[in-house]
Amino acid sequence: MARMKFLCDADRCIECNACVTACKNEHEVPWGINRRRVVTINDGKPGERSVSMACMHCTDAPCAAVCPTNAFYTTADAVVLHSKDICIGCGYCFYACPFGAPQYPRVGNFGSRGKMDKCTFCAGGPETDNTAAEYDKYGSNRLAEGKLPLCAEMCSTKSLLAGDGDIIAQIYKERVTKRGYGSGAWGWQTAYRETIAS
Amino acid sequence: MTTLFTRIRFAAGALALLFILALVPPGNAQQPTSVNPTASSVKEDQLLREMNRVGGRVSIPDTKSGIIEQPAGRDWRHFHEVTLKWIGVISIVGMFALLVVFYLVRGMVRIEGGRSGRVIVRFNTMERFVHWMTATCFIILAISGLNITFGRQLLLPLMSPETFTAWSQTLKYLHNYVSFPFTIGVVLILLMWVGNNIPNQVDAEWLKRGGGIVGDDHPPAERFNAGQKLIYWIVVIGGGAVAISGYLLMFPFYGTGIAGMQLAQIVHGVVSVLFVAAMLGHIYIGTIGMEGAFEAMGEGTVDVNWARQHHSLWLKEQMAQQQSQPGPKGRPAATPAE
Fold it and tell me: Would you call A88 and B250 a contact, using CB atoms and an 8 Å cutoff?
């Protein structure tokens, strides 16, 4: 089985936000929640870079470790998923997450947290694949259909890569070698405890 | 004259131009052969080394999502999974074990000379209401809080995940809503008893003589002895700390960011488990630890012999007050001015 990862080649990202929009549309993500976002660092200054970031599906995921109800599980593809039937919306995974992935729809007054929502690597949830119940809670399950996450699939500059970690790392390395530079695989050290030599 | 002046000006200008040209480094005169587009680009490891987080601008309305990476979440994870659990186990189980051992050694502290049969009012209805409101809230908050921290290890293996979620979800809402009467209770406790809880010389003497906890001595005490004053300040300061940190967590992003919430959770967790341990001691001495103590908060009255034994100065003061005022001893209350 593959070890699924995301990789954003910041030297290619043009901050078009199409990944953000595609994700929101594909999964009918609840109002006020963006499973993926593009952050521009040093905006307007020399050396500015944009990075598309969502759940990185960490190795030894912190969210899963701190969850009081054990709502998280890791699939055979090493995708970190959670059950909204088990989640109680306590907010702990958000405190622990290095990438700010978990978000909570506001329920009731004072912004109290509902069931957590985050990127599923387009792999749905614990329900039977591609059922209405699964779609309703987690969005579509593209992985079960043999497709990769939509954000990366439709990235206009192929900056965002999603797929088997070894393969996307190889693609990135070849790019760096060919063009002669690369600002590294953002978040990889934090999420997977590894870097891609560039 | 005019031509000479023009010539001098020309010569000066030429010299100045020569001087400027000489200053310009020759390399700049030609175009660079290759551009390094990443020469000034931001580097992840450098940003992380500078402030242990990476943030920027997002174009979606959710500006807080501009924090792209905060590895500090891993430190918080270590606190929550290791540090807090050890502090909790050591303080709560340790306190429980200590109390069991103390009870086996010491047993219940009896009223010397038995009950006199005469009682004196110790806590009025308002005081007892505030105490029991706060106490009830505290027990609910403690159980629901401990469930969040220890439930996964202790309770989840005993039931189905769905049952545990239903239970935890209910407790989460209880924890949130019960916090409001608890906070009101802590504020009322602060206002109601602060006058009786300022440490003074009597407390120093009480502590020096072991407070009746060690040995059979019963040093004089006012309305509250040093031990009770300690409990009072634990409730006021600890309760205040858990309330403030708790509300920061309950209202995410009102006033704090992610780092602030991690810190608030650390304060909330540590203070709460120590608070629970302290309250175990309070519950012990108010129930099985001491004869005649529970009725002070139960019926509101205590036996005079109990009061003489544990709060001699307070009893003396109460007696003096009763004697100076013509109490309602069968006689209709007369106007005190006469």
Answer: no
CB pairs under 8 A between A and B: 167
Q: Least CA distance to B77: which residue of chain A? A: A96
Angle at the Cα of A160 (from A136 to A96), degrees rounded to 5? 65
> d(Cα A169, Cα A182) in Å, to the nearest integer?
12
Collect all residues of chain A within an 8 Å Cβ-Cβ radius of residue B161: 69-70, 83, 86
Kindly calculate the radius of gyration of chain B based on its CA atoms and give it in whole angstroms: 35
Q: What is the pLDDT of residues B100-139, one digit of tens each?
A: 999 999 888 888 888 888 899 999 999 999 999 999 999 9
Q: Tokens 């960011």 correspond to what residue?
A: B257
CB nearest B68 (choices: A51, A88, A189): A51
Distance of residue B163 Cα from the nearest chain A Cα, in angstroms: 9
Which of B36, B42, B153, B251 has the most A C-beta neighbours within 10 Å, making it the best mutation to test the interface with A? B42
Domain count, chain B: 1
Nearest chain A residue to B66 by CA distance is: A39
Strand-pair partners of A113: A106
- Looking up residue B79, the CATH number of its domain turns out to be 1.20.950.20
Query: If residue A178 lies in a helix (H) or strand (E), which one and from where to where?
Result: helix A165-179
Q: Does the residue B15 lie in any domain?
A: no
Q: Is residue B217 part of a domain?
A: yes
DSSP state, residue A39 = E
CA–CA distance, B61 with A159 (Å, rounded to integer): 23
The CA distance from B283 to B103, in Å, is 13
- C-alpha dihedral, B255 to A94 to A139 to A122, nearest 10°: 130
Kindly determine whether residue B37 and residue A67, on different chains, have CB atoms separated by under 8 Å: no
What pLDDT is attached to residue B3? 67
Domain that holds residue B291: 71-105+118-324
Nearest residue in chain A measured CA to CA from B168: A88
Residues from chain A contacting residue B157 (CB–CB below 8 Å):
none
Closest partner residue to B41 among A49, A68, A89, by Cβ?
A49
Q: What are the residue boundaries of the structural domains of chain A, listed by start?
A: 4-192
Least confident of A151-155, A181-185, B10-14, B55-59: B10-14
Per-residue pLDDT tens over the stretch A62-101: 999 999 999 999 999 999 999 999 999 999 999 999 999 9
In this predicted complex, what is the ipTM? 0.89
User: Which among B66, B74, B172 has the least Cβ separation from residue A39?
Assistant: B66
pTM: 0.84
Q: Which CATH number fits domain A4-192: 3.30.70.20, 3.40.50.720, 3.30.1300.10, 3.50.50.60?
A: 3.30.70.20
A6-15 tens-digit pLDDT: 999 999 999 9
